Amino acid sequence: MTIAASPRAQAGHTAPGVHATARIRATSSGNATILPVLAGDGPFDLRRNRSYGTEARVCITGAMSAPLGGDRLRIEATAEQGAHLHITTAAATIALRGPTPEHATYDVRLTVAEQASLHWLPQPLISTARSNLRQSCTIDLAPTARLVLREEQVLGRAGEPPGRLSTRLTVRHDGHPLLDQQTRYGPDAPGWNGPAILAGHRAVGQILIVDPAFGSEPPAVRLLGDDPADGQAVLTPLAGPALLVTALAPDSLRLRRLLEAAYPTA
After folding, report:
1. Through-space distance between the first and last CA atoms of the chain, rounded to whole angstroms
2. What value does the mean pLDDT of the chain take?
3. For residues 208 and 244, is the Cβ–Cβ distance under 8 A?
4. Where exactly are the structural domains of the chain?
5. Would the N or C end of the chain have less CB density within 10 A of its end CB?
6. What's the pLDDT score for residue 59?
7. Which residues make beta-bridge pairs with 85?
């Protein structure tokens, strides 16, 4: 009987930590969007899904458990001029402890050119007990670019505390800062579970929409959710052609419902 080696062993990683990058590039071609670059290694397996109109669609599936302590993971996606790109993941990303207490990194870099659009809609990130992850997302948008981004974090699986999780979202529009926020949860993050931040909830998420149309017609502020114990969401316009929906909930299911109620097209 032959036993296949794990993907980490096949990759020759005897020491803790995998270094891997996925690259996606979308280009406009007539009335369609093509993908001249679709490459992933390590835990990233990129699948080309059926296109929707002029939009190319990609699903990222996991080829191994990641991120673990010591891993260095990166995704780079570019929608060139006039291209339309939709990216999702097949399952939740689970941050695990791994063989070393060293933190893991998961960096996402998105670039959207003139008259292009990008939907970045991954499944939730789950921070498990004793994990240590630093996640960042950096986005550069041209003046006429459009973006739909959804982020969701679940702090601990059922019955367990979360690990250490820090996230940073940095968005530049036409070369100028549009949004720059950083959050920390779990051990060593003062007050993360207190009334000023999560108030006992374990699921947090947001939707960011950037669209030139918001420059002349910004959306109105809205509060969703009647009972704070069941979670609430707030929709606010940003100082630019953008809106931000932020939500808190006891679990991922109610979090997604709040986000979809605030902005269903995401």
Report:
1. 48
2. 91
3. yes
4. 17-197
5. N
6. 97
7. 56, 118
